[in-house]
Fold:
Amino acid sequence: MSKLTSFARIWLTRSFKPFYFSNTYDSVLEYEDTDNLGLYVHIPFCRKICTFCPYCKVVYNKDDAKLYVKALLKEIEMVGHMRKKEKKEVTSLYFGGGTPALLIEDIRLIVTKIKENFIITEGIGLELHPNDVTVENLKTLKASGITKISIGIQSFQSEFLELLGRSSVEYESMFQALKEVAFETVSMDFIFALPGQTFEHIKKDIEIAFNNQANHVAIYPFIDFSFTSHTFSLMSNQDKKRLLFKIVSYCNEKGYERDSIWTFSKNGKARYSSMTRENFLGFGCSATTLLKEQFKINTFDVNEYIERISGKTLPTSLAIKFTLRQRMVYYLFWTFYTMKLYEGDFNKFFNKKLLKYYGLELLIARMFGFIKKENERYSMTTKGSYYYHYFEHFYTLLYIDQMWSLMKNNAFPDELIIH
Structure:
């Protein structure tokens, strides 16, 4: 499969040039004139380490957390002071982890520091562990400016939580807390394609969520990273495809709006996604920044992150300067995550014509039934979404797995070349 992804890279970028990431990066981030800019803050602390989770995380320690927050505030300030004009308008702010609620008393402080430098127009989202969904915590978060929450359920059924090494949760108290404290978006995350998991299991999870204050669900396939561990066999691609099609069909029948590859909204209005932004600034360990011509990722090492910030240096571990075609491919890949692509948006972002660069590929995709076109909007079909997932899976294992594997073992590697 690596040969296929390599061929796709060569074809779509029209170049044999690999993706080359180095430890040489810009000390100033040129984001001031960037439109549709999002913000992301990473909180790496967890009570315990879930072996299936690939994200940057460490076991919570009060003293470490205190130093981390101090460094995080400083990084936000450093980047914020790179602007020359007034506060920069951004679309949104998302807190991910880890378990952000472990720093719940610091969330307001972090939001305040963000607002000293940026104007947030579309709200603030935060990820929650089910155990942290209490009335007290929700009130604290709401008072801190949080408008959207995403709860990492994974499954309401104990047999699948056990597979993932997660403990069962008393959900009734969580549901009651959600009744008492309302948010613009209440999203619940689930994992599918676990061994023994059927459509009925997923259907049950979806209905429990929507019957208990959720207005949005995310249903992600299990991805087997090389640096994570599990003891079960993976579901076959054909079984995964059948399961995905049943999930989509069921949600369509119920009137749930599919607003991205893996997410569905109950009322068509709720949204929760920290990934589908044309550009974004990332703060904290492992946080990524994507701008018009560059991509950078911060170190995964908490102590090294704090050390870099204390030296008044950006904690960048690796960075890449995109070629035009590389940036176009990145744009198209993550834009299609939303199931839609608007020709005019692409033309405006690049000041280039979409059809001139990728008209042939879009035509082929339409011929195979992967996408449909209406005026200037391309919409992905259910068939297309499966093959998007198929490609995403191998892209993740080839690109993200290589990068994260390296960075988990080396705080500041010299380079990474992905062919």
